[in-house]
Every structure is written in structure tokens, then in C-alpha cells.
Amino acid sequence: MYDISTRKLALALVTQGRSLNSVSKETGISRAAIRSWQDRLEPLPRMAPPDPEPPADEVAHAYLLGLYLGEGCISAHPRGTGHYLRIACADAWPGLLQECREAILKVVPGVGVYTLQRQGCAAVTSYSRQWPHLFPQHGPGKKHERTIALQPWQQEIVDAQPWEFIRGLIHSDGCRITNWTTRLVRGERKRYEYPRYFFTNVSVDIRRLYTDTLDKLGIAWTQCMRNGIPFNISVAKKASVALLDAHVGPKY
């Protein structure tokens, strides 16, 4: 059904690190056809991985680390030595998706970045050999089922850029809401509203990284139980909320 030039184009896109889904959508060729052409190719030669390189931009890396710990994953390319970094961003916040793209390009300049649309969200995706070195928390299984700890060089970056790390965590797994309550004042019940930040993550280690950084910044926080499960970290005191408002900002 397809001529040689069409096949070469599709395979060239795949060898650039593109997923079968994205190549199929761009070219109109079925994934099954592209996969069958791949299977006829000679195996790619295995090259030694490059020496680890530090992030090109430590501010962007601190932010991207927060996004990765919240809504990111890394997976190996089945036919190469590189890896895919994927960060899930909800469609409700297109500005967050753009900021994620910009952070990736600052951390590894020149790398390809594309989005794969899913229901209700988009996966911001990039292919590079550097991702496992830049995010050594990568490993088999779910994050909350394995130990998550920062390497010394990562901790130095977080210590130098704590607000960017907090911003990435909140932009991925956090939110700012308005709570309300009522009080009796001179016999009359009045409604009071106040802002509050929540951070929700199943991983005990990731929550600890968040709260340890809040402690260093002087942010007051409490752990909230929901259905007997302590997955939520709340920041509700006025002064602490004001600091988060000044340094984190809303999703948009």
C-alpha cells in the first residue's frame, strides 16, 4: 500500500525517538504497518551511553524535578540507548504545558519536545540519553512503591532553588483552593473565606521532600487525613499562603 519513500519517512521519524502513535497521527500510516517495517530492520547497534552531563539550567531543573516527581515517568526506547521523559499536563492548564516544554528545553538544549494528546491531558514528551542521569529516581514500578531520594548533586540544586522545586511539585500534584467556614458574631452567623494550598501524593518519600523544603523556607504546614490516609499536605496560615502566592503562582 505504501511506496518506499513513505516507508523511509515513517521509519526516519521513529528513529528520531518519536512514538508509533505520534508518527501514525502525523503520516496517516497505521501503527501496525510501521511496526511491521521496524521488525524487518537490522537491530540498531548498541552504543555506549554518554558520560552524564549536568543540567544546562539548574533553575529549570529544580522546577522540572518537581513536575517529574509529581506527574512524570521515564521509559527506555525499545530499539536504542535513549529514554523518553513524559510529563502529564491537564488540558485545563495550557500555560502549564507550555512552561513544562520550556523547562525541558532549558535543561537539555536542542532536544526534541512534542505532545501526545490523551483524554483530558497531554503528555509532554522528550527523547534523550540524558534523562536517567538527570532524574536518577527513575526505576521499575510505581514511585510510591520504591524509595525516592535525591542524589547529593540534586539536593544542592534544590537547596539553591527551593522555590522552583516547590513550584514544580505544586504545579504537578498541588492546588490552591478557597475554603470557607461560618462563625457566630453577636448572634449572627457570618461566612468567612480563606485561601489554602494542598499537595497530594501517595509516596511518603515525595511528601517528605516537599515538607522538608517547606520547613527550610519557613512555611507552616499540616498533614491532613482523608479516609484514614495521610496523602494530603495543607498550607493554610495566612503568612505561609502569602509566601506561596508570591513564589509559586497559580496554574493557568
Question: N- to C-terminal separation?
Answer: 45 Å
The largest sheet has its strands arranged as 1-2-4-3
Q: How is the biggest beta sheet arranged? A: 4 strands, antiparallel
CATH fold-level label of the largest domain? Endonuclease I-creI
- Helix content, binned percent: 40-55%
The quaternary organization reads as single chain
H/E element sequence:
HHHHEEHEEHHHEEHEEH
How would the blueprint of this fold be written?
Elements (H helix, E strand, L loop, with lengths): L3 H12 L4 H8 L3 H9 L18 H14 E5 L6 E8 L3 H14 L5 E6 L2 E8 L2 H4 L17 H9 L1 H12 E12 L2 E13 L3 H14 L4 E5 L2 E7 L2 H10 L5
Antiparallel strand pairs: 1-2, 2-4, 3-4, 5-6, 6-8, 7-8
Written account of the structure:
The protein is α+β, with helices and mostly antiparallel strands and 252 residues long. It has 3 domains: 4-39; 58-161, Homing endonucleases (Endonuclease I-creI); 171-247, Roll (Endonuclease I-creI). Helix content is 42%, strand content 25%. The protein contains 10 helices and 8 strands. The chain has helices at 4-15, 20-27, 31-39, 58-71, 94-107, 131-134, 152-160, 162-173, 204-217, 238-247; strands at residues 72-76, 83-90, 113-118, 121-128, 174-185, 188-200, 222-226, 229-235. The strands form 2 sheets. Strands 1-2-4-3 form a 4-stranded antiparallel beta sheet. A 4-stranded antiparallel beta sheet has the order 5-6-8-7. Helix 4 packs parallel to helix 8, helix 7 crosses helix 8 (162-173) and helix 8 (162-173) packs across helix 9. It is elongated. The N and C termini lie far apart (45 Å). Residues 42-49 have low confidence and may be disordered.
